[in-house]
């Protein structure tokens, strides 16, 4: 059966944060109209940390559907317990779980460090067009 | 019998073939980028020959797997459950490789770049090796019982034929990548790609010959090679000859045909089976005992007819936009570093 705590909060986190994001967007549009977008410190601070919200909403939404559908894996057609692969052992599942947690943990940490480094950097002065012989390729890796 | 069943087997074979033709050269570039690029600028140039293309190429893998899931769910269930640990390893290789493209240029440190270089190389070797082993497994046969369940251990996934298939595909990817780099780079890099192609070509040719003979012995009872197998051998010979003749364009065409014929030969050897059971012939998974219902096939076909042209069109367009050669000087003159990628990301 679905877990009531997950259902209750999954729904609310997803829906309320969705409204919050809409409001932040409207706030930004209003500031553009007043030509204060670039100078409004409060808004810019909120907008930066607003980047966290979609991750929370996504996670809450997934918890809502996956937990809410139980005991079905396909609603009304197949039970989760009948969808379990008979040939994948618990050991294999543990191995995959550990591999993914470690891998995503490392990559996530590196990502965070990169973002923090970039956010602390000053913008380099833009080169005048005449200084470069050839335009930079549009996509560079 | 529903005629859409064999049709979707052909579609899946085409998807795997398309995947290996396209991702094959970017695996090759991934393996070779430190060999063709001797300094940071030329390594970046090598990566940028596939930078805008590799993720589109990889979509073919996702679509191939998804098509198996939709059209032949029991094939998918047996394959992906039986190969579970191998799939985890494959995903790790693909994830690390994909991230390497993005992260490598984001910092200047030598250790940073070297780390991502290594991960890109290792991921680019592992991915075709593992997928090749998986495709070899389908044809060679795995211990599968009457319930269509895999009954072996992890090590049973590595029969000699499957491992040989994996290694062959790695070598074809290497040559395919080298001929691609000859076409997409300039100056020293282009020259080095040519030298590498000439070194790799004879080995690739020998592996393809061995693979074709082994595949033929595994799958057929006739003496003579079938047309696809013959084509693989002829294309491999042509590739070696064209590489030594410095005909870059034709050499790339030849490695493309070699790759395609190798993959198609696995699927022609397989049909009407999709997974051979080494336990008993009676337990073979076939297109018929793994197929979805007729309704699923109808929906699948309609969806494919609508979306396949769209996807093909934008992929062709991507290749057209990024058709130019990439020069290491592009990355040298402006000394692009963190500042540039930052400015680009911000569109200033």
Shape, per Cα inertia axes of chain B: globular
Q: Could you estimate the helical fraction of the residues of chain B in percent?
A: over 70%
How much of the polypeptide of chain B forms β-strand, as a percent range? under 5%
Return the average pLDDT of chain B rounded to an integer. 91
Which CATH architecture of chain B would you pick? Up-down Bundle
Strand content of chain A: under 5%
**Termini separation of chain B:** 61 Å
Domains counted in the coordinates of chain B: how many?
A: 1
The number of strands of chain A is 2
The tally of helices of chain B reads 12
Query: What is the ordering of alpha helices and beta strands of chain A?
Result: HHHEEH
Task: State the CATH class of chain B.
Answer: Mainly Alpha
In terms of quaternary structure, what is this?
heterodimer
Instruction: Output the strand order for the largest sheet of chain A.
Output: 1-2
What is the succession of H and E elements of chain B? Answer: HHHHHHHHHHEEHH
What about the largest sheet of chain B? 2 strands, antiparallel
User: Which class of secondary structure composition applies to the elements of chain A?
Assistant: mainly alpha
Share in helix of chain A: 55-70%
- Unreliable stretches covering 5 or more consecutive residues of chain A: none
Look at the helices and sheets of chain B and give the structural class: mainly alpha
Please state the average pLDDT score of chain A.
87
């Amino acid at each position: 059966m679905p877990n009531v705590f997950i259902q209750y909060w999954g729904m609310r986190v997803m829906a309320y944060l969705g409204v919050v994001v809409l409001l932040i967007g409207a706030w930004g549009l209003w500031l553009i109209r007043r030509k204060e977008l670039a100078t409004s410190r409060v808004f810019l601070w909120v907008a930066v940390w607003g980047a966290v919200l979609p991750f929370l909403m996504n996670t809450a939404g997934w918890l809502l559907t996956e937990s809410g559908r139980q005991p079905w894996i396909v609603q009304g057609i197949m039970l989760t317990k009948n969808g379990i692969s008979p040939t994948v052992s618990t050991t294999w599942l543990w191995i995959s779980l550990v591999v993914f947690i470690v891998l995503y943990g490392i990559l996530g940490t590196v990502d965070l460090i990169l973002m923090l480094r970039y956010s602390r950097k000053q913008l380099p002065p833009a080169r005048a067009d005449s200084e470069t012989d050839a335009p930079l390729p549009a996509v560079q890796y | 019998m529903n005629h859409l069943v064999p049709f979707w087997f052909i579609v899946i074979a085409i998807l795997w073939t398309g995947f290996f033709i396209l991702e094959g050269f970017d695996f090759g570039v991934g393996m070779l980028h430190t060999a063709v690029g001797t300094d940071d600028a030329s390594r970046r140039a090598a990566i940028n020959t596939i930078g805008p293309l590799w993720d589109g190429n990889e979509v073919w893998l996702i679509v191939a797997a998804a098509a198996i899931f939709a059209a032949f769910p029991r094939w998918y269930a047996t394959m992906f459950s039986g190969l579970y640990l191998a799939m985890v390893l494959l995903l790790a290789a693909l994830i690390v490789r994909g991230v390497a493209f993005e992260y490598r240029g984001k910092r200047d440190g030598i250790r940073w770049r070297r780390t991502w270089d290594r991960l890109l190389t290792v991921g680019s070797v592992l991915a075709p090796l593992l997928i090749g082993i998986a495709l070899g497994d389908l044809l060679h046969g795995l211990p599968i019982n009457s319930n269509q369940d895999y009954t072996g251990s992890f090590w049973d996934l590595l029969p000699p034929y499957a491992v040989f298939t994996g290694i062959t595909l790695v070598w074809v990817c290497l040559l395919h990548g080298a001929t691609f780099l000859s076409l997409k780079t300039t100056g020293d890099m282009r020259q080095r790609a040519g030298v590498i192609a000439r070194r790799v070509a004879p080995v690739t040719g020998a592996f393809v010959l061995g693979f074709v003979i082994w595949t033929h012995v595994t799958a057929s009872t006739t003496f003579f090679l079938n047309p696809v197998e013959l084509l693989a051998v002829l294309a491999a010979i042509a590739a070696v000859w064209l590489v030594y003749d410095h005909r870059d364009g034709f050499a790339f065409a030849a490695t493309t045909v070699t790759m395609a014929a190798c993959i198609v030969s696995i699927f022609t050897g397989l049909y009407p089976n999709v997974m051979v059971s080494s336990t008993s012939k009676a337990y073979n998974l076939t297109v018929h005992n793994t197929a979805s219902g007729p309704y699923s096939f109808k929906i699948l076909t309609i969806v494919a007819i609508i979306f396949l042209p769209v996807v093909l069109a934008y992929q062709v367009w991507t290749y057209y936009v990024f058709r130019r050669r990439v020069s290491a000087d592009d990355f040298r003159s402006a000394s692009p570093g963190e500042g540039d990628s930052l400015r680009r990301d911000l569109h200033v």
